């Protein structure tokens, strides 16, 4: 064992000298011998010690336990107690000062050396652990500070993003509304042209043809603007569930008529109504968006001569909707993108579309707290299943 600088605090002069001799035999250096706690503290003021051998019963006002408490506070030096007493009360007082070791008198040299070695080892390990704890606490403090700064930056970024989102929504809504008025005028003019062309006129056929083109284009553009407006509200969190009593048959008929009127394909729509109530309580605007978009897509991606099935029934206060077509279908590897905004399958070819319809359907179904699933196979067709709670 390497040499240590040791302070002996022992009120029995003979015991102190014997202890000094035993320790010096093991090459330890004795920096002083004191018979009181006060003298021990004086020696430590001017001398460095690696360990203190402390008798519990000392001369003077400070006993060994109180002296050890002061040494712990001021010097953080390991202390080994020396005592002839091992009663419970004494041991309880000793434990409270967190001693490095406790030796009962009389002791032998071998035992004493072992206790000193263990005391030094314990002290070093505790200091290493304390150092690691301090380093860890510092790292935690620094990490907490870094996280706080990052959180501030994130909060600022989110606030900026929110402001940009609100600005974008306002621009989309304002611009879209701005388009609505001239589009309405153009549509009215196209319809007037068709009315005038019904009379005998040398260019009757051409007028009818171009008027129909204008009307179809305006309807398509109006539909796109409606979709953009919808997502402008969605991004601004302004889509609310507004339930009211409505006639279900009337809503279905309106949707089917609108889809037929806007279709450029010769596709038959087969409507199959199961047991459905005459009236329901739900949001008519959201239901219209779901029915119209699913049905329009089914018709648009079907070929001339094909048919689309539109089935609705009611079960356990849920509206069950099924829309099936035998059209181009969606490639399996693209199924997970079906409801993404602006997504269009690679096999749509020259068929026009914005890629917003199904994302609108999904958003409406979510607002209604419903469910939507689908089955689709390329060149076979697609079927959508929608479950919507009603009468809530």
UniProtKB/TrEMBL annotation:
Domain Response regulatory: 5-120
Keyword terms: ATP-binding, Coiled coil, Kinase, Nucleotide-binding, Phosphoprotein, Transferase, Two-component regulatory system
Catalytic activity: ATP + protein L-histidine = ADP + protein N-phospho-L-histidine
A single MF term (Gene Ontology): ATP binding
Positions carrying 4-aspartylphosphate: 55
EC number: 2.7.13.3
Stretches of the chain forming a coiled coil according to its record: 118-164
Database matches in InterPro entries: CheY-like_superfamily, HATPase_C_sf, HATPase_dom, His_kinase_dom, HisK_dim/P_dom, HisK_dim/P_sf, Sensor_HK_Regulatory, Sig_transdc_His_kin-like_C
Taxonomy, superkingdom: Bacteria
Domain Histidine kinase: 174-392
SUPFAM superfamilies named among the record's database cross-references: ATPase domain of HSP90 chaperone/DNA topoisomerase II/histidine kinase, CheY-like, Homodimeric domain of signal transducing histidine kinase
Matching CDD domains: HATPase, HisKA, REC_DC-like
Protein name listed in UniProt: histidine kinase
UniProt source species: Shivajiella indica
